[in-house]
Design a protein that fits this description.
Helix content: 40-55%
Radius of gyration: 35 Å
Largest sheet: none
Number of domains: 1
Shape: elongated
Number of helices: 2
Distance between the termini: 96 Å
Number of strands: 0
Structural class: mainly alpha
Strand content: under 5%
Order of helices and strands: HH
Amino acid sequence: MIHRLKSGGALLLVLGTLLGGCSPTVKLQAPDEPIRFDVNINITEQKRLQIDQELLELIKRNPELFGVTPEQLPNAATGSEK
């Protein structure tokens, strides 16, 4: 009976060692090359000015939505801030 327990324990030890050696390995490694995002955007100065003016008009309509007061907004006639 004792001999049977010893051989069963040895078998469990061997199986445990074999199964432990087959465990998956997770390896985190930085890529060799940097990650690149190629975004080809060509916005002319005219479009930028148009977008800026549209955004300013939107903010003027609802300044509290953007967390500003009307006094903080630039003067549209001069383009400078108060």
